[in-house]
Amino acid sequence: MLTAGLLIAGLSGVGATAAAAADVPPTMPPQLQRDENVVTSDPIPTVQIDNGYVWAQTTIGTTVYAVGKFDNAREPKAASGTALTARSNVLAYDIVSGALSSFAPTVNGVIKAVAASPDGSRIYIGGSFNKVNGKDRWNFAALDAKTGELVPQFAPSIGGSGVYAITTDGSNIYLGGLFTQANGVARKNLAAFDQKNGALLSWAPQADRQVDALVMDPAGTNVIVGGRFSAVNGSSLRGSAAVDKSTGAADTAWGISKVVKNSGSSSNSGIFALATDANTVYGTGWSWAGGGNLEGTFAAEAGTGAVRWIADCHGDHYGVYSTGKVVYTTSHMHSCNTMGLQPQKNPAVYQYAEAYTADARGTLSANTYSGYANWAGTPAPSPYQWAPDFAVGTTSGLGQAGLSITGAGDMISIGGEFRSVNNGQFEGIVRFSTNPPGGAKDGPRLSDAAWKPTAGTSPVPGSARVSIPTNWDRDDLTLTYELRRDGATEPVATATADGTWWKQTTVTLDDPTATPGATQSYTVVAKDRDGNIATSASVNAKATAGTASAYSKKILADKPSLYYPMGNVSKDWAGSNNPVSGTGASASSSGIENSGTGSTTFNGTTNGRVSSDAKAPVSSEFSAEIWFQTTTKTGGMLIGSGAAKTGSSASVDRQLYMANSGTLTFGVFAGQARSTIAGTKALNDGVWHHAVASQGAAGMKLYVDGELVASDAAVTTAKTDPAYLRIGGDALTGWPSAPSSNYFKGSLDEAAVYPLALNADQVRSHFQLGKGLKAPTAAFTAQATDLTVAVDGSGSTADGAASISGYAWDFGDGSSATGATATHDYAAAGTYTVRLTVTDSSGLSASSEKQVAVTAPVVADVVVASDRFDRAVESGWGTAEVGGVWTPMQGKSTALSVADGAGVIDLVAGQTREMLLDDASVRDAATTMSYTLSGGPESGTVYVGAGSRRNADAGYRALAWHRADGATWVVIQRNGTAIASAAVPGLTWSAGTVFHLSTETTGSSSTTIRAKVWADGQPEPATWQVSASDATAALQSEGSPSVFSYRAGTATGTNVVRVNEVKTTRIGG
Description:
By secondary structure, the chain is mainly β. It contains three helices and 78 strands.
């Protein structure tokens, strides 16, 4: 909903909102960069509908069943009105290939609900119709999931406007909608039937208005109901309810119905869809004219309904689907300021699909728009940057895009009434994948004249500066920015920054290799995580005169977010957040060696401070670096972050301060408590010292003069609210070992902050440069033989009169050694990082590392089964050359024979033949086979292939699917069910063609099955044509190889399969 006149509203609560969980931070959840669990924004060619809409979807294996209102399916990418195949309000397609299946029942009215039986044998449909496949079926029907035929002796009827929701527990089928009768017996919008015979059950809860969604509670006792109702069984339950699946009693204690209240007197609000994963129920809310309190998505705990999280992005929400890690929704979201996403625009800008973490990552902030509830403080998920563009349609009357979501494996399917996706030809159905065919190609959106950089004056001597607004990407939050000289392919500077279309900041890049005083033409390239790029317009920038010191060049090379050289420099050399100095901070010409800008002297008063001009973003990982010189006995803060630019901040964090004794303490706010680490040596001795305080995945660390002096691996978090950088003083009240003065008296130099934890080598290098010392050079060679590596570091050198006094080796697997040379045996093959650290006679050290690849000794593969059928057998296949006797698993021996150098299989329509070698048992195996068929496509569909890990009726198969249309596909099955398939482009079949099939089955906890097929005379494909992974426990051990064939029941005559050769080898010996 979008109310007229967006006004700042009073912050009214929603009532019984759940308190934020103790382990959820009390801040807005951070927006996240898409990771490997999130689909990309690349739409994948998918069968389309033509002039209609898809209202609901469900999935069995890799087959998606889509229902709604449409008369035709359309080939992927085909234009409207072309390449049509008749379909009557229901279709099925393969989510892996996107191809339409032969499933084609006819239904004479709109279908708004679809559900699969748990065993995958049936599809249940509901809607507003009275004929299915030409037979009477009133608003509800059961179909064979493979053939589309009506399930016999199953004909329940629903009297009323229609069935809009279906769910099943395998024994009973539960229906919701807008109706008054079920099998002629009074029911009010809810009913249940026996799945065996369609008999009406006594289950009869009553919803006072329309039911739109049903799911089974993962906890197993309730049916979860969603819709437009205000009451169930007379109890006030607005939009959602939990109903006992046996008795129909409403569970009034179910948590979400006490919090989310979506209903109104004119049915202007409701819960549109429900979905579940292993432990959570998800729902989507819509509202108009204040009829409800949630436009967005909720997650409720299975069993209790307790709120897990709320995502109250404004705009009606429709479909919802969870992978267990990522939750996808469809909507027309137009603002989501409570989660830090897009603000309301005028005119409104809509987003039609969203992705969230399945768990809560923060809490909602206060709503500031009138007409919406205030969910402030409620746990909320993190949103991912994922925003494909949809063009809305009009066929359903809603004027929306996506209405439903389902998925399988690494793919999701969105169905609705959209006309296109990302300006491409995708109507009504579209797929997205975490690993789209051909890779992720949707890149940064702005380029050329639409993305213009500006030239600035770099404060860094000998550098040219270019600034540019951040770009944005549909499926990447964080982009890498490269500054390139015109015509060059390599960058002279890089930076990373987050950017969205509604929030653009500025990226500043300096070319440190520019010729001082010269002008150069530059472009900026934005690159996403998948390597897609966009290039800006060009700009001319002039390099500043002079040359930066070696120390400054090193600091800048390590990419600080703020860098204040101090002394006579009043600029931020890393960006544009310049320092602001108090009157008690004055420039001094002296400072550390190799700096060249002098230092800043602080007088120890409240005016003796330097701060950033603006609040700076604060990352969860960081380092703060500074040099100091003092003889003070009253301590003071050296560097930290605070809520105020001047004076004492009410909130401080990431503080590095000196105690009265001269020791250093580093402290952060971890949650609601202070955590500190401290050194033990007094450093108020009048000598320049170097300090780095860092925090990251390895915890807190404090380095002094290049060495680690304190650490705490357990503390990995601190506050991430933007804050001012404070140097020289801020509030220290309450911090351990707080000094008598908050403000430092002494000299400070070379202050820098990094959005990462500097490693020990970087810290040591900075210290050595600042002291004018030159570290040794670590160099080594590495020679790998099988699993053994020999290393030699005698080529390492020390500076001047110093010599190398120590060698320390880290072999990357937890093993170490000393000495100039060493050897090491690895336990397993792989690529390891070998690191050498050398120390010289002056105590300075340096490191070098290399990637070393070791491989296991080659073990010849062992043949466990092999047969070229060089014999004659009238019934069966006899005994293989290697592997024992061929045993028929399916079919009679009389249909099998061996003659003329081939194993012969006579296949009639609808028959399966599978031959097993019981004496051969193997887990990781490669199988090759060749065969011919006596008939061509006119004789009907045939499957031929090889089985692996076969035990009883279980196992895997890799099959060539020779289709009646002349095409050939490759299919992988688990226990007879397809788990992956792919068409083989250009591979057709005819009588007598010799085909070759190759397959591998590997793995012990998760098995990978791969296959490819090609015709004689063609080169063997270089890559596998189809691959699948499966973790079924019963199939993770050894089993027997087999040869399989099947002929479709619609085929005619007989087709003879002649297997010329089959061979199975154990992979790895």
